[in-house]
Each structure stands twice: as C-alpha cells, then as structure tokens.
Amino acid sequence: MRFIKTATGFVVRLDRGEEVLDGLSSFIEQAGLVGGSITGIGAVQDTVLGYLDPETKSYHKQTFSGDMELVNLTGNITWVDGKPFVHAHVTISGSDFVARSGHLFQARIAVTGEFYVHPSEVRLARVADPVTGANLISD
Fold it and tell me: What is the CATH number of domain 2-137?
C-alpha cells in the first residue's frame, strides 16, 4: 500500500495481491482517520459480492474468481466494535463486459487499486439492527 496526501484527503494505491477491505482498513488506522468516504477503481480477482435479503435478514453471496475491472467502488468509513469498518458497494466487469454489483465482502487486487479517501471529523458507529439484520449507522 502507498498513499499520497492531497488538499482534500488521500490517494491510496493498493498493489497486486492485497485484499481491498483489509488494505483500506489498515490505511485508515495508520492515517488515524475517524470517518469519511471512499471511491475507487482498479482491477480485482477473487471477488465476493452480496445482496441483503430483507426477508431473511441475510446476505446472498456470489464469488467471481477471474480477473475483473473494478469499475467503481463507493463506500464510507465507520466503526464496528472499536475497529474501522469500510462499508462499500462495487461494480465489477469481466471480459464479457457484463456489469455485476453488490455489497463488497472480499476482493484481491489483480493489477492495481486506486482509491480516493475523503476524511471527515465525525466518527460514526454501526450497530446491529434487529429489523433489517444489517449493521446501521447509529446516532
């Protein structure tokens, strides 16, 4: 992982083999960030996406094994159990140019990952919501 400080935040580069959520969480701790937003692009592999089924309160997950373009990652930085939590949704596309999207559970960088991190001074926590089964931002 490498990063560059900008006037409005950071540019974070993850390299081949790094896990996206682990790498971003590590950067957040290293930089001492308490909150913010993240956007990104790149190329990933071994990607696990999910869809939250409100009826069952559980995620349906699907794994995409091959190399995929990370067309978009949009997320936020919150905290769960005292640790940074990157809540991210992504769109990925393979050689068939078909877009797939969902909640990001896992992805490993295949070529590079380029992420813009925009810090905020507000620390937001997440707590389990019994109605939806999701960890929601709490007040």
Answer: 3.30.1330.80
| C-alpha distances in Å from residue 113, one per residue of 22, 102, 116 | 13, 18, 10
Domain ranges of the chain: 2-137
- Per-residue pLDDT, 138: 87
User: What's the pTM?
Assistant: 0.94
CB neighbour list of residue 87: distance below 8 Å, 6 or more residues apart:
75, 76, 78, 103, 126
Residue 139 scores a pLDDT above 80: no
Distance, CA of 11 to CA of 98 (rounded, Å): 28
